[in-house]
User: What shape does this take?
Amino acid sequence: AAATTGENGTGSGGGTSVRTPKAGAKKGLLSRKGGSGGGGGGSGGGGGGGGDGHSIISGVTENTLTTLTASQMGTIHRSPRAKSSSMFHKPTQLQAATVWDVISPPPVNSVKGHFVPGGLAKFHRHRRVSIEVHLVFPTIAVDDDTKKEDAKKDSAKDKSKKNADSTAAKSGIVGGLFGGSGDKDADGTDPSKGYEDVFVRILVPASSREIRAAQEAAEKVAEAVDKAAKDTKKAVGEGLDKAAETVGGPGGKLLAHDDDSTMPTKMTTVNAMPGRTASTRTGMQRGAVIDTIPENKQGTVAPPPAANAHWLEKYRFPVRDVHVKKRVSNSVVLHTKVGELEQTREIIFETAREAIDFCHEMEDHHRIEEIRSKKRLKAALGGIKLKEGGGKEKIKFLIEAVSGTELPAADISTSDPMVKIMFNGKEVHKTKFISSTLEPVWTIKHDSLCLFTVTVQDLFDSHEGLTFLVQDFDKFGGNETLGAVVVPPRDVFLAKGERVEYPLKALFGQKDYGTGKLVLRIRRATEYDIDFMEKWSSSQKEDLIVKTTATKGGKGTIGSIVTRNEKVEKHGHGAEKTSVTKYRIRPCPDPKRKEETSWMTKEALQKEALEPSRHWADVGSGKLGKLYVEIIGCDGLPQLDTGAFLGNKTDAFVSVVYEDCISKTDVIDDTLSPRWMPWSQRAFQLHMMHPSSQLYLGVFDYDDGMFDDHDLIGRVSVDVTNFYPNTEYLLTYSIYPTAKTSYTREAKGTLTFRLRIEYVDERQMVLSNLTPPPTIHVNVKTKKDFQCAKYTASGKIDMEPYSQRTISSYIEELMTYMECYYYLEDAVLNVILWRGHFPLKLGKKTILLPVHSFNLFLCMVVLVERPTLFPSFCCATIAWVLLAVMGYKRNVPNPWDGCRSFGEVMQQLILGKCLTGPDNIPAFANAEKAKEFTDKWTKRMEEAEKMAERRRLKAIEEQEEWQKEMEEIGDTNVDISTKSGGGVSIDPLKPILYPIQQYLGITCNCLRFIKNIIIWEESYFAAIIALASIVLAIALAFVPWAFIFRWTSRITVWILFGPWVKAVDVFYVSKLKPLTEEELEKQEHEAKRLRKERTKEAALQARIAREDAKKLKDMKKYMFGKFITHVSVLKLDRFRDVPHPQSEAKPYEQKALPMSELAMKEAGKDRTRIPGQQLLGDMIPMLDTSDINDAPTGQPTAQKALLEKSSPGAKVEKDSTANAVAKISGVVAAAAVVTWFGVPLVISAVKMIW
Assistant: This one.
């Protein structure tokens, strides 16, 4: 667009018409409408014709030296003190502008809306006000995946052309937004060409220094653009980056700074200048701001302002944020609003006519602002489809300031970083600061999360989206900004919670540290997120803390002394006189039978304790199955309270830890043989996450003192892997303080409980062993509960701290693995000597068959004849050993020391259900044989140990004799050099022994796990390994090893040792030259680069793991308690707890119930749901809040087999999916057979009759 004098031109080229007053014309404003044609081409390089009806009109006086042309308007430079409604602009192209010369008195207390009238202003400040129509090109960053896809689509034939197109698309201008679809709106406009936006700008005269700075900046940028354009292999964006850094420092200082004004700023980007075009950037990083503006509609860009720019932008407002409050003659009062900041200022025009025209221009633009707003939204969405009226839809985003990395140091060597989130100049949220760190991780306790509610229209109307300011907190004075990140509206709209790193950019006019990254997560808020954040930001924070069930009981010393817990009742007279001892029922009698259950005899108490529990605590978050645990009682507990002769005895309770849940029973006061009644808190329904998980039960003495911990009496680790479903176990275990060391391994009484297992899907349960077990921690609120949880899960002896006793325990454990020698000796002798071991019943007799001996003989015969089967036999040997150990374990006399069989695991895996019936083990089953077997093996071990001790003493004697012989021979050392050394070492043991202790601990844990697999205590792992070995052995048996070995050897010999190797030497090896220093350096540099990349990637993954761990830790600390203990899933105890002989098992038969009772039971009656502590997800991890309601939808009950026969619906059978498919398939097959054979017969019969 060129400046002309006189009327509008009628050229046919593109551009915007310019209309200016003739020389010497009267002061005032010319027509606002302008012509329909464009001005002719001028020296500025603008094309003519094709204008859109707007004109650039400059209201000037007789003293005006120059008029403001379109090109000059486009090159108005930004002053460092410029202010506007946003932080930065999108790339724009000026379409039309109307300009007035005005006087603008300074506003006073502008935030409150007061202003100083023009007549009272001390200084008349000359300004220019422009109403400008811009064609805006939204900026979109294209990710790496899109770049790769675009690169694959490029063909060799039109590579150069497609590279140019791809460059424009990847810059995010026009093509990157709309994909060049060319689809038009309903009004015929093409959204891919941008949209119109109207701004009101206030300009100030430029000083000579600022003009010179603009000239130098323009020349430098032009040189950079020209240089980059000459190299076709480089993107012009690199030159623009360098130019931006030349003008504004690293990163271009893309964000504006605050000054003495009260209005937030908006940065003016590189503006269009005719005649200077270049390709756009090839791409940009997430969070970067594109600071280029296309000059034409092909997506090209132009350099910064020219030197003839005499006016600088002071303010820039969208026209929708500017309103005319009133007009008095040639004075207009404007009201501007940006976010929550409002400003009222007076604009004084040259004449009243100009003021009227300005008001009319504002009215016209406000009238069509709604249409422009829709186009602006559609263009900004970039092809994203919204439902009708979606622009007004409110969206809630969940925003998380995750962490910062490599932040600059604002306080000498460190910073106190915090994050402030801004939107349209308004503070949305602010995190708490973290003291003295350059690698902060903001968590829930630092307020790292916030909800951001905005309409789609308002989000995309904001030019910069969300702004994140990273600041250094200062207690005294203002916070120093370390950098900022701008997330564009489109990125916010499309974010799905992924972790994104954004480089920090410097605010304009502030120090650029040139380092630092901010990690963010943004996604749409779910209902759970909204509920969580609303409670977190209100007084309902306590509602987020997971509640646990309260326990009863636990008296102090005085209460125990004054409470009577035992009485003797006498009945009859004389010789018939009898006495009965009764005991008080604790913690309380049955609420339904208070008189009957307040005092009971020992026999009645035991019988009542075995009744089914009435109320269950439904705890945990697993999906594989459920464990039903009922604590019955303890016997033989030690006295841990003082004052036993006064009645103050042990106050026992049981702590239950299973996977991610922890619960406690009621406290039974003052007894050494407590019994928990069916109406007390004693029953727990535990959800299973992994089949190898252990059930930990700890018995404690309750202490109510403020500084007293609950004393551990003993604990037991229950291995539930080898228990069967549909079986009710009544188990009695000895309790020990620890199971990891032989020290203090002394029984402290017994614990009796009832156990039952239900699996949801047995096949899925077996397959879950293929995934690594989860790492589980449980949190508790108090230190007392922490001690209970820790002792229950790990025992009283902590093996982590340095201790010589711990080292001795590890060494002792390693020595016990020498027992394997005796097992191996037995196995070898049994196999070689053909001793029978496999029982075969023939009538009343049982014959032991040497199956393993026969297998070994057969395998050796085959292997001698066919050595190529050796690899297959090696794999088969692993399965054979495992199956042999399994057979041994299943044949031991003690039924509680057995294991699952390989066949049972295969049934679960193939059929989805174990066909073996439930266990039926009576009390004291095979007790005598089991004791005899144990005593026999113990005696053999003692004899073997005596033999080993005798050999050790014999070796010591021989060593002493050898030393005596050496003394008689004398010293033969002839070294005459001076010896050095000696001296006293301070604490020489710990630095040496503690690492050894740690290595010994790791070794022992590994050996325990391997031992558990071999002896089938981890039966599912053992079965899976055996199955894999069998499959691999079968596969390797069909591999032609002889053929492979023969031809591999032939090829190797002929290639490497033939005479043609001489040719390799002549033509290749002899011509190899040693690498030069340069090449060696290059190789080393490349190796270092690769190593650095690997290290960087490993550091990133480690940093992400630390972030997740820290965030999860703080979230769990708030929701469950600040004390954390680890719960092991795998069996890593040294000693295995085995049930006592009096334990029993019987098939579980649930009592038939009426439909009403069964439906209420499935609906959760008499159950209290306590969610587990396993949190899943990012940002706001979720609990397993599954309902306790097991009732099906649309059916009266899920378990119709449990209905009484008289109940309605009891006889209605519900087929499984497999049965239903089988029936339908049978009907279809029968119909097909009948049709195939029956139809011809019918036709034949009809023909005969006819």
